[in-house]
Write a structure and sequence with these properties.
single chain, alpha+beta
């Protein structure tokens, strides 16, 4: 399966997939895969009224090893404005789950807010 943001995608096609990014970060154009986290507000559980209030991307930089990955993290608000960004390095991807990667990404970018 080809990468979502591989070199084969034109700028117009990338914009269609990520319309809130006027100028996507350079690491999105390399041959990498990413995780997208979307937070929706669903009033009274009515799906038709759901709206996205935040998004995040976790992108494999391709600089890790098969057992340990390095990732760039970017968090955006409802308007698509960058809120926080950072890096997760040395993540043991064969031992831990995607939820653990998300936890570490939030810990690195947002920190402890309690």
């Amino acid at each position: 399966m080809p990468p979502l943001y591989g070199r084969a995608f034109s700028a117009e096609r990338r914009k269609r997939f990520r319309p809130h990014l006027e100028t996507p970060a350079p690491f999105l154009f390399s041959e990498t895969y990413m995780l997208r986290v979307t937070i929706e507000l669903v009033p009274l559980g009515i799906e038709s009224r759901a709206r996205i209030i935040a998004t995040g991307t976790i992108v494999n930089t391709g600089t890790g090893t098969p057992a340990s990955g390095d990732y760039c993290v970017e968090l955006r608000d409802a308007a698509g404005r960058r809120w926080k960004s950072g890096h997760v390095e040395g993540f043991p991807r064969k031992r831990l789950l995607a939820w653990d990667l998300l936890y570490r990404a939030l810990e690195k970018t947002v920190g402890n807010r309690n």
